[in-house]
Amino acid sequence: MSIALRASRRTLAEELRLQLADEIVRGALEPGAALDEMALARRFRVSRTPVREAIRQLAASGLVDARAHRAAVVAQPSEERLIGMFEAMAELEALCAGLAAERMNGGERCLLETTHEELRALIQSGDPQRYHEVNEAFHAAIYAGAHNAYLAEMTHATRARVQPFRRAQFRNLGRLAKSHVEHDRVVLAILRGDRDGAAAAMRGHIMLVCEEYEAYADSL
Fold first, then answer.
1. Which residues of 13-36 are buried (b: 16+ CB within 10 A; e: fewer)?
2. Which residue from 4, 13, 142, 153 has the least number of CB within 10 angstroms?
3. pLDDT at 4 exceeding the cut of 60
4. Could you tell me whether strands 70-74 and 64-67 are parallel, antiparallel, or unpaired per DSSP bridges?
5. Which of 63-67, 206-210, 211-215, 216-220 has the lowest mean pLDDT?
6. For the whole model, what pTM was predicted?
7. Beta partners for 72?
8. Is pLDDT of 171 > 60?
9. For 79-102, what is each residue's pLDDT tens digit?
10. Residues in CB range of 136: below 8 A, 6 or more apart
11. What mean pLDDT do residues 118-147 have?
12. Residue 68, SS3?
């Protein structure tokens, strides 16, 4: 099936980015491998435009080194840089969760609980891809609940840079259930209006995601 037929809810560029990011993180595309736009367009049966945009997005997340007038190549962030990215992500998300505990209105709290329960159901189905999609909505609900547009913008941008690594860790055995337990702590603190508790729970969650990704990478 062509990638175009599967890109129903995402743009072609986003679908391409996710697939290429997955191959890079798994090692199917090794560091130094060239990403030729024409070859990728033929492989996925799309035009060069979404391929070019996908490569641009991958470069923004540090997975690809874009070079002027030459094919982009697969990169790999150093361990130090990757940990730094997760540390920044943890602090931004912790701030969002803390503010959300104080500022979320009734409707936003209801949406957060509903999304959290949908994630619980997905653990039973064992669908990492769908869990990842709803997980994105869960975190986005917390960013919105912080009622700070600038903070939400920074957090979304940072999240996009670490998304391939966050996504990969869902392949670890039992990770979906563990992630939901971590979310439980965040949700309960937000619903209690506990700013410090929500921030601490979210910070701990993100750093555990970092550890889970490192464990996944070591297993490859």
1. bebbbbebbbbbbeeebeeeeebe
2. 153
3. no
4. antiparallel
5. 216-220
6. 0.79
7. 35
8. yes
9. 898 899 999 999 999 999 999 999
10. none
11. 90
12. coil
Q: How many Å from the N-terminal Cα to the C-terminal Cα in the chain? A: 27
How much of the chain is helix, strand and coil, in % rounded to 5?
A: 75, 5, 20
Encode burial over 66-100: b for 16+ CB neighbours within 10 A, e otherwise.
beeeeebbbbbbeeeebeebbebbbbbbbbbbbbb
Secondary structure (DSSP) of 19-42 = HHHHHHHHTSS-TT-EE-HHHHHH
Return all residues near 80 (Cβ < 8 A) that are at least 6 apart.
none
Q: Which amino acid is at 26?
A: R
185-193 average pLDDT score = 98
Query: In the β-sheet with 70-74, what is the strand arrangement from edge to edge?
Result: 34-35, 70-74, 64-67
Q: How is residue 72 written in tokens?
A: 């982009």
Which residue's structure tokens are 């609940």?
A: 145
| pLDDT in the model for residue 101 | 98
CA distances from 141 to 21, 33, 52, 65, 178 (A): 24, 37, 30, 32, 20
User: For the residues of 77-119, what is the DSSP string, one character each?
Assistant: --HHHHHHHHHHHHHHHHHHHHHHHHH--HHHHHHHHHHHHHH
Is the predicted pLDDT of residue 5 greater than 80, yes or no?
Answer: no
